[in-house]
Amino acid sequence: MRWVPHPRNTEIFKRLEKKGFDKAYVILGQFLVLKKNEELFMEWLKDTAGVTTHHARQCFQCMNDWCSAFL
């Protein structure tokens, strides 16, 4: 997993990577562990990577859409 090259995204990726979330499938795993619950996933992402509510919601929606399409 790599984010779009932007200074803010690079910092988010570094924070996630430091905590062991170095691949998209690892973040997907956390999404599934949290039972695809929007509130829990967004709070986890904000606490873990320091993202904004807006970015947490975008990430949730991306994971949710992917799961709807492929699981």
TrEMBL record:
A Pfam short name: SAM_BAF
GO BP term, example: chromosome organization
Taxonomy, superkingdom: Eukaryota
Molecular function as annotated in GO: DNA binding
Xref: InterPro entries: BAF (IPR051387), BAF_prot (IPR004122)
Any one GO CC term of the record: nucleus
The protein, known as: Barrier-to-autointegration factor
UniProt organism field: Allacma fusca
